[in-house]
Design goal:
Blueprint (H helix, E strand, L loop, with lengths): L2 H6 L1 H19 L4 H21 L6 E2 L4 E2 L2 H27 L6 H17 L4 H19 L6 H32 L4 H6 L1 H4 L3 H18 L8 H7 L2 H23 L8 H23 L4 H22 L2 H28 L15 H4 L1 H15 L5 H15 L3 H27 L14 H17 L1 H11 L1
Antiparallel strand pairs: 1-2
Helix pairs in contact: 2-3, 2-5, 3-4, 3-5, 4-5, 4-12, 4-15, 5-6, 5-12, 6-7, 6-12, 7-10, 7-11, 10-12, 11-12, 11-14, 12-14, 12-15, 13-14, 13-19, 14-15, 14-18, 14-19, 15-17, 15-18, 15-20, 15-21, 17-19, 17-20, 18-19, 18-20
Length: 472
């Protein structure tokens, strides 16, 4: 790697350097948790800044394996910020759970690096490497509170099902290489017209889509989502629900939107079915949940369906709309899981609807923040979630998928019930027992920033969308 390439890859290289320093601290020191925490915050912040400063770069490096600048680095910014928020939100939680170890921050950083590799990939091999780096870290994060049986169970389920899904993805890459003679995304796009008659190409594409659909939690590859989110440490659940989902969607955008590949009849039909099934099942099952954590898990399946509608549209509005949705979803979902982590005891307690009864009286500021996140997730204007749904549904209508957009709107109406149920518990139910205790105050600033971003993006959506349109 030349100096020029090193500087061009600064968002990834600097985060990697900080992660390696944290790794050395954890390996050589018994009491390095504080230093690891500070360096992790600095590393993710520096990576986010360099990603923003490098948005105008173009081209590829590392022998055409990695792209620089553009929408890939916008994803890198998103991953860095998600990692930064997750690290800050996790410290007090981990101490309360008796798992205050610096390795947690290290795993978050390496997972973010894997996500960046996926978003900036110019080759299928790089997507696979990034996916595996991210996945291995997430398997460990899911079981980080190893004294809890449910945490070990979630880690094992995620590992077994994730390894199975990775097999599909890797076999799909092998078939694509066999059909085209290349794993380069640009090479596959240039040969697309000659590959449309190859059964091997379509089978490989289908297997690749299965592997990525598992990572976004789309139906019928969603079985792991509720159990893993419930058993994992709550800050890790938030990171998986946002960063990992965004990384998988970045790979889907890279492969399936080149030369309007998603508009091909075979692929489009699969995307539409995945979208519709995810919206229906995710929303309907979320209604029956008594745990807010499991409700958010099922709602994440529904949100994957909304975003898949934008992918299936296969147009400019869809691509920009999915990215807008991912940005909005990251902040509102990290905020929702962050609120849970503030009050959760670390033993999986204080996560039911009943636990939050009367929060509007005992902890009014936290209740207000939670209300912002719930209303945004429900798609209520003027919050960011409303415009995220608006753009993906608009893309579906423009692509003659009006029925899918109508289904999405109807399912969004259904989702209002269980999101408002949280607000009803906080403001219209009497508190029973002692008020929820706040564990750690440093997270309040992060939650406030997340809420302000959700509001600001909702009030000024055109500014964000214009940037996305320029990058695409």
């Amino acid at each position: 790697m030349t100096i020029t390439e090193f500087l061009a890859l600064s968002p990834i290289t600097f985060l990697t350097m900080f992660a390696l320093v944290v790794l050395c601290i954890e390996a050589l020191s018994r009491n390095g948790e504080r230093g690891s925490y500070v360096l992790s915050i600095v590393g993710t912040s520096v990576s986010a800044v360099f990603s923003l400063l490098s948005l105008d770069l173009t081209g590829t490096v590392c022998n055409g394996m990695v792209t620089i600048g553009g929408v890939g680095y916008l994803f890198c910014t998103l991953f860095s910020v998600a990692a930064l928020f997750s690290i800050i939100l996790s410290r007090s939680y981990l101490r309360g759970a008796g798992a205050g170890f610096g390795e947690f921050y290290l795993l978050i950083m390496f997972a973010a690096i894997g996500m960046m590799l996926m978003a900036t990939a110019a080759d299928l091999i790089m997507i696979f490497l990034g996916l595996e780096l991210m996945s291995v870290c997430l398997y460990i994060l899911a079981g980080f509170t190893r004294t809890r049986r449910v945490s070990n169970e979630s880690s094992l389920k995620y590992f077994l099902l994730g390894a199975f899904a990775t097999g599909f993805l890797l076999y799909g890459i092998a078939l694509l290489y066999g059909a085209s003679g290349t794993t380069s995304l640009a090479g596959l796009a240039s040969k697309y017209q000659s590959l449309v008659t190859s059964p091997l190409f379509w089978i490989g594409s289908g297997l690749l889509l299965i592997g990525l659909a598992f990572k976004v939690g789309a139906v019928p590859f969603h079985m792991w989502v509720p159990d893993v989110y419930e058993g994992a440490p709550t800050p890790a659940s938030g990171f998986m629900a946002t960063g990992a989902k965004a990384a998988a969607f970045s790979a889907i955008l890279l492969f399936f939107t080149r030369n309007d590949f998603a508009s091909a009849e075979k692929i489009r039909l699969i995307l539409v079915l995945l979208s519709a099934a995810s919206m229906i099942l995710g929303n309907l099952i979320a209604i029956a949940q008594t745990s807010i954590k499991r409700m958010l898990a099922y709602s994440s399946i529904a949100h994957a369906g909304y975003m898949l509608a934008g992918i299936a549209a296969a147009n400019q509005t869809g691509r920009s709309g999915v990215m807008f949705y991912l940005i909005s979803y990251t902040f509102m979902n990290l905020g929702a899981f962050g609120i849970l982590s503030v009050f959760e005891s670390g033993e999986g307690e204080k996560v039911t609807f009943d636990d939050y009864a009367g929060l509007g009286t005992s902890r009014p500021y936290y209740a207000a923040l939670m209300s912002v996140f719930m209303l945004s997730l429900a798609g209520i204007p003027p919050f960011a979630g409303f415009f995220g749904k608006y753009y993906v549904f608009l893309a579906a209508v423009q692509s003659n998928l009006t029925w899918l957009a109508i289904l999405g709107v109807l399912m969004s109406v259904v989702s209002v019930y269980y999101y408002l149920r949280v607000i009803m518990s906080m403001y219209f139910r009497k508190q029973e027992g002692e008020p929820l205790q706040v564990f750690g105050r440093t997270r309040l600033a992060v939650l406030t920033v997340a809420a302000l971003l959700v509001i600001e993006i909702g009030l000024l959506p055109s500014g964000v969308l214009s940037i996305l349109t320029t990058l695409y």
